[in-house]
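Possible regression after last week's pipeline update?

I re-ran a chain I had predicted before the update to compare outputs. Posting the input and the new output here so someone can diff against the archived version. Not blocking, just want to make sure nothing changed silently.
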Amino acid sequence: MIGLVMCGGKGMRMNLQEEKLLLKYKNPIIQHVISALQESGCFSKIFGATSANTPKTSEFLKSLGISIIQTEGTGYVNDLNKILHNFTEPVFIISGDMPLLNAKIIKKIVKLVNTKNIWTTVISSKNFLDSLHMKTEYLLIYNKKEYSYSGISIVNPVRLHGMEHVEETFVILDDKRIALNLNTKQDYDLLGTA
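New output (post-update):
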């Protein structure tokens, strides 16, 4: 399985001068994600998907020995679509802004997912996020309940064909290690209380 860290976004909602993924929580945020992937032992190779929006993040990842895939930086979905066709084994896609991530939760997710599915997305319940005082902008209804995307998907790229719609399988996981994505200043402030 390939580990793919998406880290080419502008981080506009944070309203920062610096690159979001280099903000510190003990270490730079992106380093927590990379360490969790490496320590899990689940991946044959780990890549960072960066763009012109994140030159310092790209350099930091290179210093950690991570291979870089340079994207156009035109949006998460567009960039991801172009990247996935480079791979022939399952890809574990993760957002680079998950500072509470660790190897144990990565291993748990990998065990829960059937890699024969085309696209599996890990989601958390809105009730769980509410209990952590976390807000989310994007909710989906699944089995008549509200959920939020975690920023983690496992994709079988061999079964993808262009930009066509694919059936998504969901794994529900209410765990704070995957619930906290740094999208806003409030998220970063909340991290300080974790």
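Follow-up from reviewer: compared with the archived run. The chain is about 30% helix and 25% strand. Marking as no regression found.
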